Amino acid sequence: MSILEIKDLHVKVKEEPEHPEILRGVNLTIKSGEIHALMGPNGNGKSTLAETIMGNPRYLVTQGDIVLDGQSILPLGVDERARAGLFLGMQYPAEISGVTNAEFIRAAINARRPEDDQVPIMQFLKDLDKTMAILKMPEDMADRYLNQGFSGGEKKRNEILQLMMVHPGLAMLDEIDSGLDIDALRIVAHGVNLMRGPEFSSLIITHYQRLLDYIVPDVVSVMKDGEIIETGGADLAKSLEKTGYEHLKVGDANA
């Protein structure tokens, strides 16, 4: 079983060392087979946590550790963390001209396989067509440049396509529900739910209970002022929908 452990994590923006820390002692454990939801007000460190786990060089870890299966991943680059099974579904996916969707996804799959065991092209195309059909994506999206000219909803659906094709061990999904209408939300949630199993875990960052109606989390954590201040089950998200975050204070964590 894979385990990701966030231990007393403190993080700053590397180019702004004089500014206060964004993360101020985050502790979080995610085991294989678990879906964690991370909620909280805007601007309190949720996306920073996901980006730091993935290895974005913009962020500087000043204290603490990120441990995957007993080994610190802090020395690893983004590509090495991806090969180790981490995946980030970005809040604002980048547009890349000159690289088609299909080319990008096949390269990502092959990067995690030995050079003498690359995915056969026909098998890849078969799996791609099947997965795009599940996500109700038109066939021509495979041949379009990565995210170029995509609507916000298409970009989010495309992140789930990559997730389902790459099969990471741990997926961090940063506001994958933002900008989606109810039909698209159901499709995206269905794709994530198809991934659920003993060899997959996910950290889902969201502000809204509506996503968690379709992807029911095992654990819900609330982040405020760069710390995890409360942790509970799926009912915690439902109660926050009614009460909001204002009554929660740093130091209230019950995990």
UniProtKB/TrEMBL annotation:
SUPFAM superfamilies given in the database record: P-loop containing nucleoside triphosphate hydrolases
Segments forming domain ABC transporter: 4-250
Organism encoding this protein: Lacticaseibacillus mingshuiensis
Record-linked InterPro entries: AAA+_ATPase, ABC_transporter-like_ATP-bd, ABC_transporter-like_CS, FeS-cluster_ATPase_SufC, P-loop_NTPase
Entry superkingdom: Bacteria
Record bears the keyword ATP-binding: yes
Gene name of the record: sufC
Family (UniProt): Belongs to the ABC transporter superfamily. Ycf16 family.
Protein name: Fe-S cluster assembly ATPase SufC
Keyword NAD included in the entry's annotation: no
Alphabetized Pfam families for the sequence: ABC_tran (PF00005)
UniProt keyword terms in alphabetical order: ATP-binding, Nucleotide-binding
